[in-house]
Every structure is written in structure tokens, then in C-alpha cells.
Amino acid sequence: MFIQEEYLEQARKIHRECPVVDAHFDLAAEVCERRLAGEQGVVEQRYLPRFEEAGLNIVVSSIFINNRDLPELGLRKALGQITALKEDVESVNNRIRVTGSRAELEENLAAGRISILLSLEGLDPLGNDLSLLRTFYDLGVRGAGLTWSRRNAFATGCCTAGQFQEIPGGLTELGKEAIRKMEGLGMWLDVSHLSNDGFRDVCEAAEQPFIASHSDAWAVHENYRNLTDAQIREIAGRGGVIGLNACGYLTGIMPETTTPAEQEADAALLRLCEHAEHLARIAGPAHIGYGFDLCKGLEETTPRIQFETENYDVLAHHGEMVKLTAALLQRGMDEEAAKGIAGGNFLRYYRSILR
Ligand SMILES: [Zn+2]
């Protein structure tokens, strides 16, 4: 997609001056794997320059557990990931920090420091023991989805990984109790990966606004990870935010290779714009953000989990966020809407949740 310089300039200014957020990134799992292999300064070397290039203010790191590690290793892996990520950024604490409170978040914003917020991609590490939710809260976890694309003690995921086939079944009683507990603690609820039945149950059980941190629009591409128009309206109507996912499987454009020809890359970016525009049309632009779910790094470290990650990143790295914002502007999105989507909307939401 040919992006004119004036829109790139406008987008760069937005990313420089306004809040920028990626609401879903599998960072902790990758950092943990790489550190176990002996690498240090993973975030500093591999990600920080791109984060800063994008003007990123907040990145939400998921804590993601592979199928093969469940159930026995779920808790251990989750704890390992949190510790690894905290240790990894310690030496660059003046530039990026794991953050758990509203005051810290504001401090980081004022100082131009990036905040990492932690979110559990599924409550599997808790097993059947909901009391451990508090343990994770005390470790700094501020958001959670009830389940990843699988069934656990709390809920049923949207589909079988790699098959994208709807699984019937909603929330268990424990799942409903988990929502009450999360709302009481000051954690956000994330419905990406939840089944349609589960979504319906969440609408009954949740009293506070919830998010879908990394999901696209079913109307643009039919995939069980994506949201129907009714679901989009429901999230927005309650004050939640939807994060645009840049994974090829979800957008519906899957180039043959991971380094696609320019034409293929353009088609993928255009499709991503179509998802953003549809979500914004249905939800209103104040309820859309970015939650790119860039998977390449995690896949490199654990090649066997192909299909457990969502695979093929439309954006090669975070530096390319600017290109997407520019593309949206060039296609007619107004500047206020683009600012909100780049990060203002998720920032507003996190401010309402964090204590
Ligand atoms: Zn995911």
C-alpha cells in the first residue's frame, strides 16, 4: 500500500505526542524461553528500540501457557514468566517497567517511560483454586482472560487451536465467581479467545466494562476468534475496548511465506485497515485500540507451538504501527479517531481499572 508522506508525518506526530498502546503481546513467554537459553537483556536488545520508535507508552504482556505444559506446569511456568520479565527489564528500568498501579502508570507517562502491564491469557495456572488469583494480583497481574482457546475449570475457549471450530459451552460457576473476584480486586476481564456461549455468560455475570484485547471483526473475516457485530456493540455499549489483531489468520490474509512480497504485505495491511474501520463503524472509534498479538518472537523460541500462537504478523514489528496509523488516516479516518485508536482509548480504560 503506497502511503503518502503527509500521512506518515501526521501519524509520526500522533505516535510522538499521544498515548500509544499495544494491548496484547506474548512478551513474557518469549523472554522466559530466551533467558532459559542463556540470553539476557532480551527486551532491551530485541524490542526496546522498536517500542521507542513507535512511541509506545503501554504494552500489555500476556502470560501464556502452552497446551503441553498443562495442567501440571501451568503455575510454575506462569511464575517463571513473570519473574523472567521483571528481571529482564531491571537494568533498563529508566526506560521500561513492569507496572501495577495507577500512580506508577502516570509517573511513567510523565517521564516518557514505557509501562508493561501483565495479563493472564487464561486462568489455567490457577488450576481449580480461585484463591490463587490474589497471588497473581500481588505479583502485579492486572488483567486476565478466563481461558485461552481451550476448555478449563472456568470457561470454554472459542475454538480448538489451529482448527478454528466453535466449541459449545460457556462459563462454569467457578468462571462466574472469577469475574466477581477480578472486579473486586481491580483487574480487567478479557474476552478474546472466549466461546460465543461464554461471551453470552460474561454479559450476564460482568458488572464492569470488559475488553477483547486482540480480536478482529467476524463480518470482515469469519473466524471464531473474531467478534460478531452484536458482540462488538455489547463491548462498546458497556464502555469496553476492542484491540485490533494483526495476525494473518484472524484478518483473513495469509501470505504464503513469512517474508511476503510487497504486494502480499500491502494486501495484508489493507485488510487490517478494513477490520479497524469496521470495528470503529460498529463500536464507535472511542472503543477501538491496537492489540496486535505479534507472534514471531515467541514462535522462534518455541517452534513446536505453531498453531498455539496465532501466526503470521501483518506488522513485522512495533515500529510499523506508525505505518498502520498512517494508512488509516490516508483512507479517511479523522485525526481524533486515530489518536484514540493508537492508544487513548485503552489508556482511558486502564486508568479506570488500575488502583
Ligand atoms: Zn491470544
Q: Return the CATH architecture.
A: Alpha-Beta Barrel
- The CATH class assignment is Alpha Beta
Unreliable runs:
none
- Following the backbone from N to C, one meets helices and strands in this order, namely HEHHEHEHEHEHEHHEHHEHHH
Give the CATH superfamily: Metal-dependent hydrolases
InterPro entries: Metal_Hydrolase, Pept_M19
Protein name: Dipeptidase
Characterise this structure.
By secondary structure, the chain is α/β, with parallel strands linked by helices. It has a single domain, classed as TIM Barrel. Helices cover 45% and strands 10% of the residues. It has helices spanning 5-17, 27-36, 42-53, 74-89, 102-111, 132-138, 173-185, 196-205, 229-237, 248-251, 262-283, 296-301, 321-330, 335-353; strands at 21-25, 58-63, 96-98, 114-121, 141-145, 188-190, 242-244, 288-290. The strands form 2 sheets. Strands 1, 2, 3, 4, 5 and 6 form a 6-stranded parallel sheet that branches. Helix 7 links the parallel strand 5 (141-145) and strand 6 (188-190). Helix 1 crosses helix 13 and helix 2 packs across helix 4. The longest helix has 22 residues, at 262-283. It is globular. The protein starts with a helix and ends with a helix. The model has no long low-confidence stretch (mean pLDDT 94). Zinc ion is lined by residues 121, 192-193, 214, 293, 310.
Compose a concise summary of this entry.
By secondary structure, the protein is an alpha/beta fold.
List the helices and strands and how they pair.
Layout (H helix, E strand, L loop, with lengths): L4 H13 L3 E5 L1 H10 L5 H12 L4 E6 L10 H16 L6 E3 L3 H10 L2 E8 L10 H7 L2 E5 L27 H13 L2 E3 L5 H10 L23 H9 L4 E3 L3 H4 L10 H22 L4 E3 L5 H6 L19 H10 L4 H19 L2
Helix pairs in contact: 1-13, 2-4
The protein binds zinc ion.
